[in-house]
C-alpha cells in the first residue's frame, strides 16, 4: 500500500482548547492529510480513507498532570479568521481527488450553510 502525505503550514492566533477540567491556549502550526493511494488490488474505500491531523503548539506550557490526566472532553474556541482558514484547509484536503460534481455539491452545501448561519 502506498501512502500519500500532504502538509501545509497553519498559523493561527491563540486557540483556546477547553476540557471538562481546564483550558489551555494553543496555536495551530500545521495541518497534514495522510492517506493510502486508491487503486491497488484488494483495497476498499475504508482502507484508503485519509486522516487529517492538526498540529497545535501550547502557547503557555503548564505542568498539571493530575488535571490534564483526568480530562474527558475537549472543545476548541477559534477566532472567526482562524475558523475560516482552518475550514478552508480542511475542505480543500477533504475534497482532494473528488469529481467536479462532488466539489460543486460541496460548494452548494457551503453556500446553504452560510445562508443558514449568516
Could you characterize what this model shows?
Helices cover 31% and strands 32% of the residues. It is an alpha+beta fold. The chain has one domain (3-117). Strands 1, 2, 3, 4 and 5 form a 5-stranded antiparallel beta sheet that branches. A hairpin with a 3-residue loop joins strand 2 (15-19) and strand 3.
Average pLDDT taken over every residue: 81
Assembly context of the chains: single chain
Total DSSP helices? 3
Strand residue content: 25-35%
Number of domains: 1
Which descriptor suits the 3D outline? Answer: globular
How many beta-strand elements?
5
Give the radius of gyration.
Answer: 18 Å
Roughly how many Å apart are the termini? 44 Å
Q: How can the largest sheet be summarized?
A: 5 strands, antiparallel
**Helical content class:** 25-40%
H-E order: EEEEHEHH
Poorly predicted tracts of residues: none
Coarse structural class: alpha+beta
